Structures are given as C-alpha cells and as structure tokens.
DNA sequence: TTCAATTTGTTCGTATGTATC
DNA sequence: GGATACATACGAACAAATTGA
C-alpha cells in the first residue's frame, strides 16, 4: 500500500507534469496543503522532501516552495537526447505489433531509442504513460490516442509537451479538441469504399457495426453514410450497431436478436477484421453462412482477414508503413523541421466474404 | 549556527571517514544515538537522512543503518533510473508481441519504463542494440538471445553489463558460453512430449523439422531423441530436417522431395506452430492432408495453432506470463535481490492435427 | 525603515505499523 | 514468537528568512 506522503507526492508531481503547477512558480504553502489533504504538516513535508529529491521542487526558506525542472537534466532518466516515446492503446493485439515494428525499425536505423508504453485504451493508464514520458524527458512522442472520440481528461498533459517544445504526433486518430499533427488512414474513405462495394455487388440494405469511442469508428460511419447519400438511399438507423471498448464483448448478442428481425439486410460493414471474424462466427452459431446468407466486409487487412475459415474482403491499412512515417515525422520534428499531416488512402481488397447479388 | 542535526551528521561522517564506523557495518541504532547526543529521535533521523542522501549511509528496515561507500562513485550509473531495456529478435511476429506485452504491463505497474529494440535475429543488429542500451544507461536488461546456438560475437558487451553492475536476464534461450540467468521454457520436455504423443497415438516412424541456429531448436531436438531412446526405437537422421533463419524460406522445398521418398514416415514434429502450418500448406500442395495422411504437431500454442484450416495439436507456452516473470526478475535484480533461473514446463494441447493409428 | 504576516526550518514529544533477526 | 530497528503519522512550539504594507 502506498503511504500518505507518497500519494501526496504523486498528486503534486502530476500537477507539475500537467502544468497545473507551472515551473518557476510557488506551490501552495505547507499549511494549505496540510488542510487540502487532511494530514499533518510533517506528512506534507515528507512528500515535498521526496519531490525535492527527485528534482521536481526547490524550497526557499521564508519564501515558499517552487516548481523546478532540474529533473529533466539529471543523469537520472535515459539520456534524453535521442529517445522517442511511443504510446499505443494495445501492444500485442491486431495490427499494433506491425505499427510498432515499423516505428522501431526506422528509429533504430537512425540512432534513436524507443521508449514504449501502452494504455489498454484507458485514460487513467494514458495519464500514467504521459507522466512517465515527461519525467523520462523524451525528445519526441508518438501517440495513438486513447478513446479519441470521447472527452479526454489528459489534454493538459499534451499541452504540457507543447510548452516544453517536445513534438508530438498522433497516429490512427487524434483528439479533435487539440491541434496536434497526425498520421492517419482516411477512415471516411474506408467506410465509404466498403459500403460502395456492397452496393455495387447488388446489396441494397446494409448494416454497420462500428466502435464509437474512437474517431476511426466515427469516420468509418461517416463514410457509410456518405455512400448512402451518394446512392440516394436511406438507411435505417436501427441497422447501425455501435459498441465501445467496454461493451465489445456483448455486441454480438444484441446483434443476433436484431439481425433476426431485420430480414432485408444482406450486407454488413464491420469496423475492422476482428469484428468481421467475430460476426462470421456469431452468424455461424445462428446457422447463417458467409457469404451465402450475408456478405461481410472487414477493415485493416490484418492477419485475421486471411486466418479464419472465410477469407475477408477488407480495406488496406499501411501498418508498418504508417509506423515508419510516424517515426520519420517525429525525427524531423525533433530537428525543428515541421511537416504537415499525412493521410494514407485505403484500398479495397477483394476476397471471399462478399457475394454478388442479382435481382 | 549549525543545527543540531548538522552537528550530529558531521560527527557521524567523521567517524565513517576515520574508519571508526566501518563500511558495511551497522552504526548504533536511532535510540542509542538519541541518548548519546541527548536529542530527540527525530533529530537523529534528520542527521541520518542527510547522510543517506550524501551516500554515506544506507538504511535497512528492521535491520539497521549501515555504512555505505556509494558516495565515492557518485554521478555514475548508480542513479535510481527506472528504465529497463528489452531486446528481442522480433517484435511483430508470432508470440513476441504477447511476451513484450507481459513485460510492459508489469514494468509500468511498478513505475519502470521500457526501452525497446529488436535484432531481427542478426548479430550485427544485436550489437547495435546492446550499444544503444549501454549508452542510454538502462538499469536492467531483458534479452532474447540472437542465434543462441551459434557463436555470438557480442559476448563482450554482455560482460560489460556485468562489470557495470547492470543485471541482465535472458528469455526463451541463453548463451551457453555465458553464465547469465535465464527464464525459459523446458524445450527438451516440449520436444519429448510432442514425440511421445505421436508414439502413443501409434506412429512409429517420425520426422522432425527444427531450427538449429537457436538453442530452443537444439533442445527440442534433444527431446525428440530422448523420446526415441525411451521407446528403444532408432530414428533415421535423414528424417531430421534442419533450417536456420536464412534458409527458412527453402525448407519446405527440400522437405517435399525427401518426404516423397520416405514412405514410412507418418508423424512430423515441428519446431513451432509457424512451421507446422507451413508444413500443412506444403503438404496440401502435394495432395496430402493432415491428419489423414500425416500427423503434425506444433509448438508454442500461438494464434497460428487455431488460425488455419487445421487446428494444431501443440505445446503450451507461457507468453505473457513469461514476460511478466522476466519483468519481475529484473526489477528484483535492480534492487540487488537476486533470484534463480525460472523454467516453465510445457503441456500438451490436443487439437486436430494428430490422428490415432492402429495396426 | 520598520513591522507584522507568511513561510519554511528545527526540535521536541508520542503512538502505531512493519520488517528483520 | 518476541525483541529490535526502522517507517509512518499525528501534534506542538519556536526560530529564521522573506515579503509587502
């Protein structure tokens, strides 16, 4: 269990790293902190002593306790000169290993080191990762945002990087509230191409399964809608099934019931290959086959698209290439050479999960 | 005027420097010093805290306060940096993402950072990685050895870590020339269990495909041989097919010719699931089916074992758990608490790629 | 310049928790 | 298990430096 003074020290450290306590300014006096945290002055002093030792604070008798930044230029962390931080949601799943591989490869070729952390798509863990990167003094940061379509409580940390002149680039998605450069796939187009392909194969009533806690899901839905508009077709909002990281496990249960009632639907656009393969299994459990009974289309061209019993029609994703692009971007940015956003265009990859329908 | 605790600290420091308090020995406990100097315990603790900070003393809870000599090598690598280097052969392939995930998870939970690099199983790249880790000043290193069964030209670097007091632990394999602690799977047993299972299912003539540039392949072969000895059966050395990282691509070509000539062989033990799935595809191209024509057994229980058309009978691998164990080991080692090697025992996982033969 | 308020520094006392031998 | 030794936490008092009225 953490001791009181450690907890208080952690909180103060967080406030420093998120720029709530600004470098060079005083923090509240001991008496105030004592009241704030409901502890004795001794305990507050222990916490402060810890942070002074770490180089986050500096005390001046009679005046106050000031925020210091000497922790950055101590031989403590890694030699910050050529270290790039990488924060992703997941490490071992899906296409993430490929992206990380692309980043690592490129960085090491150029003599940079890679400091890695993952958030498991949880904002509290994201905060911990950001604090880690700030204390380690990385010279650049590549981030895949956590829950990019929800309000993010860690924006202060990102601003903190900006104020310290540490470049940040986002991959796969970005926080719309924040003007941070990004390297993404054109997800609207991906959703559009998937939907259009099903229309072209003669499907008239489509469903969509999409994730709505991240921006990719939102944009893929946007493409789904755009294709409908272009076809001058209306779609039934009931046929849009949404889920989040937390409800992922239950999505197929609710879907089975609903799909049984919607007899018209013949084509289903999926958020990604993982969902598409899950859907195919769920359909199989209902006695429905792909592509005979339903046409299904995935996204990301992951190993899952060719791993299951049905080879998925899907959309391409740059993976390694995206990782390499992010690495190159950040290395340029560290040398003060800023470049613009980069957007990869997805392409349709036709395999076996879509059937042509003729009326 | 000097404060009381400064005076006391000065006296204790003098006693250390004049060898009255000998390096490595305990100094009198707080209660005693309190009486000696006629002050409160708190004052004694202030004095001791000062000296601990200067590196003259080291406190051990429940035991005592010891004289330390770390003040002599200050500014050196003794710093409390909390960065662990991780070097693996591959990042995005096979079971490696899971292992890395296990390491990352555990390290971050405990406030450590992870510096990542990969060698692509190439010793030159391994050297670059090791140099990077040394210059970054990591406080511990987790390594999956590159070509562990071949002479390694980078042993000097590993010795360099040892000299600097930076703990190193190897995972999956180790360099036999080097006495470095390791966390591995019992690969001999894995090979043995696989072979034994085929015997038990009635197969009498077995082949082995194994990788011989790493130790795992060597040990898995050892298990293969051990099972034969136990069965008092001879095996034909012609039926042992070996490959290396560089010849991996061609292994199935040579195998197809040879297997066509060896009519007796009905069961094949594979180095891992990747090879097993490749074999199944190569056999399919010859018009042979698994398990009807050949029984095949994989290793590592990777996602590949259930991804293909045939679900593989294989052997378990701890993956995440191994990563976590490595992380825990290195964190203990950084705190000078050394523990021994750890060996995970594999278990047989029966799926569909082995057929029972009756004569 | 002085003075009072504020803030950190030093020192005492006491009680309880927890690791080690 | 019990004694020892360090760890955490509370409370109180006065000292010393700074700040701003």
UniProtKB/TrEMBL annotation, chains A, B:
InterPro entries referenced in this protein's UniProt entry, alphabetically: AraR_ligand_bind_dom, LacI/GalR-like_sensor, Peripla_BP_I, Tscrpt_reg_HTH_GntR, WH-like_DNA-bd_sf, WH_DNA-bd_sf
Residue stretches making up the HTH gntR-type domain: 2-70
Entry keyword set: DNA-binding, Transcription, Transcription regulation
SMART domains the record matches: HTH_GNTR (SM00345)
GO molecular function, one term: transcription cis-regulatory region binding
Name this protein carries in UniProt: GntR family transcriptional regulator, arabinose operon transcriptional repressor
Organism encoding this protein: Trichococcus ilyis
